[in-house]
Design a protein that fits this description.
heterodimer, A: 226 residues, alpha+beta, Cyclin A, domain 1, SH3 type barrels, 6-stranded antiparallel sheet, 8 helices, B: 217 residues, Nitrile Hydratase, Chain A, 2 domains, two-stranded parallel sheet, two-stranded parallel ribbon, disordered N terminus
């Protein structure tokens, strides 16, 4: 979706304020719990990471832009919990359980944290078709504007670049995010490439000299270019 | 002045916007406590697991992991080759991997090419080697400008590169995570891996900084 999260090339946010070298990871105790809660609920398997991203991106733009990072996480988490019926609005207001819990696939325990983090969630899958594009090939990012989740940022759409890495076949984020709740995730294994664009092709006369930008793009987001 | 300049520059309210900071702090403190209580009562989460998750990133996983990878790449040609060919396996051989580093690519700075990593869409970052991202990495100013004005962003960090050096920005738009291997500083001949690792900053592995020069004797 063309949401507020798709920030590449936007103006007006000011300079990067590089905090102290030893800036704390969390600026308030609630931020620590927000991280832990989000990861622990993710581990229940009721949604995937692309659905988490989609929930955050779907916040009203003014809310997204005016919220701190972990506030966005919490608002996205509350949305997913309510959407899937895991909690109700009344329970969120009360801060206590009112209705019986729904079954979840897993509950993360202290002793399963380390193995779960070590395992992670690899997205590489066996290829189901040959790759359409090869190293050094010129490709164009499709000019498409889906209203649902996509990982193709706006600033490359319609522009041509060169394939510099072929990553193999991976879970296709755009489809993964669209998986129906309660159904197995739609992984849609798809070829993934790094495509590099010249700065002047993306930004024209406003490009800085001698810069290029690489994005990772799935095959359905690309077409052959000359 | 609205909340915009401060809270958007950092992705976080700072003490000097007191009204905004305090109201969000108390609202969020209450809200997150209530949510944790609710989810715990439901049996969806275990507070001990939450504490363990937080501790992992507060005290175990951090840029010291990445620094040891970089220092070894500077010293050990075979390891460097492995890191170039299959960064995930090379990094796993040093004991690091897993969540948000399942698929790693290492990119190597040279005198002719400088790499810079960003995630314009969210905050993708190689957790196993760098830990959790700093606030500025997740902020609107960095996410918006790193792809359109990377040299200006580098200037915000006090880094000026010659025009002849290509700046290559990596936007982390899939599940591939990028680790920048900065150039080894001059004057480090004979340094041990531990001495070298001490020169490798977090920012130098994102590309917003360079490795430190050894202190003058």
């Amino acid at each position: 979706m063309n949401g507020p999260h798709d920030m590449g090339g936007q103006h007006g946010f000011g300079p990067v304020l590089n905090g102290a070298p030893n800036e704390p990871l969390f600026h308030a105790p609630w931020e620590r719990r927000a991280l832990g809660l989000t990861l622990a609920m993710g581990a229940t398997g009721q949604w995937n990471i692309d659905q988490s991203r989609s929930a955050r991106e779907s916040l009203p733009p003014a809310t997204y832009l005016a919220s701190s990072y972990y506030r966005i996480w919490i608002l996205g988490l509350e949305h997913l919990l309510r959407q899937r019926g895991l909690v109700s609005a009344a329970e969120l207001t009360a801060g206590h359980a009112i209705d019986p819990a729904l079954p979840v696939a897993r509950v993360l325990r202290a002793e399963t944290v380390a193995p779960a983090l070590a395992r992670g969630t690899p997205t590489a899958r066996a290829a189901v078709a040959p790759a359409r594009f090869g190293l050094g090939q010129r490709v164009r990012a499709l000019n498409r504007h889906p209203s649902a989740h996509t990982r193709l940022p706006r600033y490359v759409r319609g522009h041509a670049g060169v394939v510099t890495l072929v990553h193999g076949t991976h879970v296709f984020a755009d489809r993964h995010a669209a998986s129906d709740p309660g159904q197995p995730f739609d992984e849609a294994p798809t070829w993934l490439y790094s495509v590099v664009f010249a700065g002047e092709d993306l930004w024209g006369v406003d490009a800085e000299p001698n810069t290029c930008i690489s994005v990772d793009a799935w095959e359905p987001c690309l077409e052959a270019a000359t | 002045m609205g909340p915009y300049t401060e809270s958007m520059s950092t992705g976080h309210t700072h003490p000097h916007d007191q009204a905004d900071s305090h109201s969000e702090l108390s609202e969020m403190d209450r809200r997150v406590r209530a949510l944790e209580t609710l989810l715990t009562e439901k049996g969806y989460v275990d507070p001990a697991a939450i504490e363990r998750l937080i501790e992992t990133y507060e005290s175990e996983v951090g840029p010291h992991n990445g620094a040891s990878v970089v220092a070894r790449a500077w010293l050990d040609a075979a390891f460097r080759q492995h890191l170039e060919k299959d960064a995930t396996a090379a990094i796993a051989a040093m004991g690091f991997g897993g969540r948000q580093g399942e698929h790693m690519v290492a990119v190597f700075n040279t005198t002719t090419e400088h790499h810079l990593v960003v995630c314009t869409l969210c905050s993708c970052y190689p957790w196993p080697v760098l830990g959790l991202p700093p606030v500025w990495y997740k902020s609107a100013p960095y996410r918006s400008r790193a792809v359109a004005a990377p040299r200006a962003v580098l200037a915000d960090f006090g880094v000026a590169l010659p025009a002849s050096t290509t700046v290559r920005v990596w936007d982390s738009t899939a599940e591939i995570r990028y680790l920048v291997v900065p150039q080894r500083p001059v004057g480090t001949d004979g340094f041990s891996q531990a001495q070298l690792a001490a020169l490798v900053t977090r920012d130098s592995m994102i590309g917003t900084g360079l490795a430190l020069s050894p202190a003058a004797p």
